[in-house]
Amino acid sequence: TREVNLLQAEKNRQLSYRRLQNMLKIDDFEVQPVDFSLYERLIDFYQNIEHSEQEFLRERLIEYGIENNPMLVISRTRKSISNKSRKISFGNFLPTINLSASRNWNNNYSGERDFDSTTTYMLSASLPIFPIFDNYSTYRSSHHSYQQTERETESAEDSIKLSIEAAFYSGISSARTITSAELAYDYAEETYRMMEERFQNGLISSLDLISVELLLASSSLSATTSKYEFLKNRSVLMHLLNMDDDELFWMIIINK
Fold this sequence. Notes:
- The chain is built from 7 helices and 2 strands; from the N terminus they run H-H-H-H-E-E-H-H-H.
- By secondary structure, the chain is mainly α.
């Protein structure tokens, strides 16, 4: 089983390398190791956070995400536009009122410069009777569109809330897995050194040494996977919160 996992990991690495090549549109590149010292404070925070603090931080992250997530911002904008369109279509039922005023000056041609002025005011109102069915159809259509965007916004908010919660708890779980995975790797490495020494002394067979070597490779894979899962969950959470600044993310985490 360990050998199969190792082969699968190697194939996944090759496929990931090719996908990244295609995405970056380059022929070749060198993968640089990740400096995990940059994430130690977040890992330590996740490993030591209490359950009550988790609930408080989860609500704070959800609140921030609902306010700043780009998909929700777009969804709320569409909802606002749809609501305005509905109000405009409803205005077609209202009467049209016009008020006009005119003033005329007359002279009796008596040679005097005095003019007589008359002012006329006119108020008219019209009610759209003939196009009322068309107006009603337009209003119903805009009203249904508004209801649809309203439901889509609510559904998007629920989805973002669930995604933020999942990324947050998965981040805590992966951070706590890192320590145990690294400890297991250290034990496997020490075991391998001991078994290699025994093999050189002829105390064990090559098959036993290969078995321990596979155990070491499997432990290394588990440690790497736990770190990858931590970075992935962190990136997903930051994307949901619409932020790319590590310091800002840290300030949100520690509530400063």
